[in-house]
Amino acid sequence: MDQDSKKTAVGRAAAAEVPDGCRLGVGTGSTVNRFIDALAERGVALACVVSSSEATTTRLQGHGIAVSDLNSTGDLDLYIDGADEIDGAGHMIKGGGGALTREKIVAAASRRFICIVDDSKVVRVLGDFPLPVEVIPMARSYVARQMVKLGGLPEYREGFVTDNGNVILDVRHLDIVDPVRLEDRINSIPGVVTVGIFGHQKAHLTLAATDDGVRRIEY
Ligand code: 5RP
Fold first, then answer.
1. Residue 142's domain spans which residues?
2. Helices 3-15 and 30-42 sit at what angle, rounded to 10 degrees?
């Protein structure tokens, strides 16, 4: 099965996990787009929907799905999002699409996180995928130097501005053996808005599309 078909399959499987009356958070990315399409097709009656990016908001609204402000909804039942890598415990690298900060906020406000990926993203140790770090623009060079001190190779994502008006450093060569510890360490650097390690906000269930169908991995 090609990657495109896997995204469609896992998007459909995720839509089947959303019950009527759900207070739903929606992530960002090409896999999530398939989920949104499948959700609209199923016609689930949702209590409210909170989006993690402008791109996701546009897609939801394009299907006639109203988007609520997290400040007015309170906590959510379920968050569904993709990932760039996910390890055996449900820790993730996210932010390939640059929406990591809002994604982490909506994930934190949700009781349950379902991660939707194709099986190539399930890894033993996080870190092959360059780790995105959202940074306040004036702190870009300072934060980059701190990344080098941690053993990383930061690269400025040229021409990209996040929905929050910030920039992204993509950091290679980090061996993320203790995701929660590294998440805390990078998040404590002044100028960092958030790092794309989802160690605290890990997944509760992963739906991973394989050649033989969608595999469920519970943590
Ligand atoms: C966006 C993300 C995405 O979830 C991640 O990049 C995966 O995207 P895709 O489904 O397009 O591969 O974290 O910030």
1. 131-197
2. 40
